[in-house]
Amino acid sequence: MQDNHKPPVSSTAELQHEVAELMIECLNLEVAADQISADAPLYGEGLGLDSIDVLEVALMVSKRYGLQLRADSADNQHIFSSLRSLADYIATQRTR
Amino acid sequence: MTTRSTTDHTTWAHTPERSNMLMLRIMTWISLRLGRRIARGVLHLIASYFVLFSPGSRRASRNYLQRALDRPVRWTDMYRHFFTFAATIHDRVYLVNRRFDLFDFEVHGEDTLRRLIADGNGVFLMGAHLGSFEVIRALGRKDTDLRVAMVMHEDNAQKINAMLAAINPEAVQDIIGLGHIDSMLQVRERLDEGCVVGMLADRTPGNDTLYPVNILGARANLPIGPFRMAALLQRPVVFMTGLYLGGNRYAIHFDTLADFSDVPRGQRDAALQTAICRYAALLDQYCRKTPYNWFNFFDFWQTAPTTMPPKSS
User: Fold this and answer.
1) Burial of B59 (0-12, 13-18, 19+ CB in 10 A)
2) Domains of chain A (ranges plus CATH)?
3) Residue B106 DSSP class
4) N or C: at which end does chain B have fewer Cβ atoms within 10 angstroms?
5) CB B64 within 8 A of CB B82
6) CA-CA distances (angstroms) from residue B270 to B58, B227, B264?
7) In this complex, which of A29, A71, A77 lies closest to B2 when CB atoms are compared?
8) CB-based contact (8 Å) between A47 and chain B?
9) Which InterPro entries does the entry mention (chain A) (predicted)?
10) What is the ipTM for the molecules in this complex?
11) pLDDT tens digits for range A31-87
12) What is the pLDDT of residues B240-274, one digit of tens each?
């Protein structure tokens, strides 16, 4: 896949904070952005998001950063595994 | 953390499906080997078995029928209830084998669905454990373009596909399993292709936030997940049920349930609540119309703790 040939870009703490803020706003989470650990799982245990929450986050980041998330991507499990991996993905793929 | 009030739905998720699958397995074998008339005879044995030896199911049946019939429940009512359940499951075998010639279908509101499908943006089709959802296959006989992808819990998906493959290998259904991180991205993709995405919205496979509604004069709790999904993906929702009327007759009903296409984010929760109440009203309406078609053989009106949707502001 084309995605795998791109050099991975690490996200900055700033971007992670921004994504955390977006998630909180989008899902009405009752936490502060700096309380979301960058490496804690987003889905299931951890932040406790369900697959509809994940969809909501996916729609939101697609719009905000101009990227495409596809259902057939084997990377989804990894992308949504934590705030850090989601932010890393955004940093690599963002078009705006 | 989000404050989600959840309930343990272990019994919901397992008991009815297990008996459902066991019955389907037995009936498939009989129907394919012995023919419809003998198979129909066996349905009476199954109904008798449930009336006599399944006190849990009997209690649930009586409890429900008291609400739906609004009169004292007789043994014959419970017998008819179990027989209807067995008959609809049995007919799946023939529907999956495209033997639509065996049945007499009256269809109400099909234009509603067809119009929304023609728009090409995808439609949600919400059913319940009320009558037969499988009769949707009968509509596909007219045009092969009617593609329905069912959303369901992964465990049930595997069992059902194994069963369908056993009945008719060509009938394997397009199923989107819940519980994956990208389950919802798959749902969105199917909708974008113009597919109909179907689900049974009266039970939750796991921990889902419940919303209190009124069905048959008492409070029951419905999972809000299916409605959140439709609201988020901004699609129209059509209610569907295939009510068994006895003999070989079914009445298929399509009713407009909601349209989230143009609902702005700020109004989403209100629209979601309106939709779930409309769904409850439709369940109420059809339970009264054809009382023996309700196939939730557990205490649906249980006194579970409930909350309002956590996202309402």
Assistant:
1) middle
2) 18-93 (1.10.1200.10)
3) E
4) C
5) no
6) 38, 11, 11
7) A29
8) yes
9) ACP-like_sf, PP-bd_ACP
10) 0.78
11) 888 888 889 888 877 788 888 888 889 889 988 999 888 877 778 888 888 999 999
12) 999 999 999 999 999 999 999 999 988 999 999 99
